[in-house]
What we know:
The structure holds 2 protein chains of 2 kinds. Chain A has one domain (4-205, 221-237): Ferritin, core subunit, four-helix bundle (Ferritin, Up-down Bundle). Chain A has helices at residues 4-25, 34-62, 68-73, 84-87, 93-115, 120-148, 152-165, 187-200, 222-237. Chain A is built from 9 helices and no strands. Chain A is mainly α. The two termini of chain A are 33 Å apart. Chain B is an alpha/beta fold. Chain B folds into 2 domains: 4-76, 2-Layer Sandwich (GMP Synthetase, Chain A, domain 3), CATH 3.30.300.130; 87-155, no CATH class. The radius of gyration of chain B is 18 Å and the shape is elongated. At the A-B interface, helix 2 and helix 6 of A face loops of B.
Amino acid sequence: MNNPLTFTFALALGDDALIAAQRLAEWATRAPEMEEDIALANIALDQLGAARLLLSYAGELEGAGRDEDALAFLRDDREFRNCLLVELPNGDFAMTMAKLLVLSAYQLPLYTALAGCADERLAAIGGKARKESAYHLDHAALWVKRLGDGTEESHRRMQAGIDQVWPYAHELFVAQPQAPVDPATLRGEFDDTVSAVLAEATLTVPESGWAPGGGRDGVHTEDLSYLLAEMQVLHRAHPGARW
Amino acid sequence: MSSAREAAAAVVDPEIRVVTIADLGILRDVEEDPATGRVVVTITPTYTGCPAMDVIRADIRHRLAAAGHRDVEVRTVHSPAWSTDWISDAGRAKLAAAGIAPPAPVRRDGVVPLTLAVRCPRCGSPETAQLSRFGSTACKALWRCRACSEPFDHLKAL
Lengths: 243, 158
């Protein structure tokens, strides 16, 4: 393998985007209104686009002949490197928006930093994906404010959603000093973005405490196994199938 | 045999069929080797997940084959990242004529963001409102005109 560190990094980011896309796509036909159905499907499509670029590049770096499909559909849970945040079940709409807020507030500075990194391929992907992330962040922030500063019930559920996903934000910023972008350097911008949104939404930033991790080492929740079973079944049942 | 550039530039966008890939800025470069006749076409996606890319690649091959170019390579690049600022004036006019409001200039860092009204492509009124931040394709949002009540697509500034 040419560059194992860059491979692991591209794989982790690609897996984040892929699993996020799969979870978001689960909302199709189930969102609270038709416009939101279209919105979540579009965000899923953007995430899938980024996943395809990142996994294709990871496959090339690995040099073992695995393409984007082999990496997406023929790995088991322990081989996935995504953060736990993206594999969490969708919960209610408020929890999904809390997840999207945390994910996009992390992906935007990450892709922006990537756009200026030394690796040409990752820089191109970052430069492209950051524009889409900015739109996702706007969308999530809009809903978090609307629900947080809405009725008593919407406020309660939005706060519950934020409280539920907050511990999983920690894993996103664990230091990797050797990586093309060290995620630890992004924490400040993430905190600024999220606390500004939560303040406007009349929501409280949760206390930091329990900080589950392990996703980057392939140790996942059982939720990922069910997600993969659904995502991979067709490709595994009909290897090489095309339409 | 017509020029490879002309043939590639005439490929229409499969999802917005009133504009070509040249109008939209998807077509980045066409190079023809005069000695071998080999053509290299370089394109860039509007959005990373744009599902029209495969069709665009196939259409470029068909157009070029029909124009007499058999040895064709289509390359996809992601840098520099596509921007709606690359849509030509002719492209903007075609979009507006088809009822799709063209995008405003992209907001740049360091510049005070100025929100320009999206004008209704039907009646020209600036009295419009966003109905949905996402639309029928990745590159569009759904708006409505308050003056003439018509809903319309708006190409999002990116």
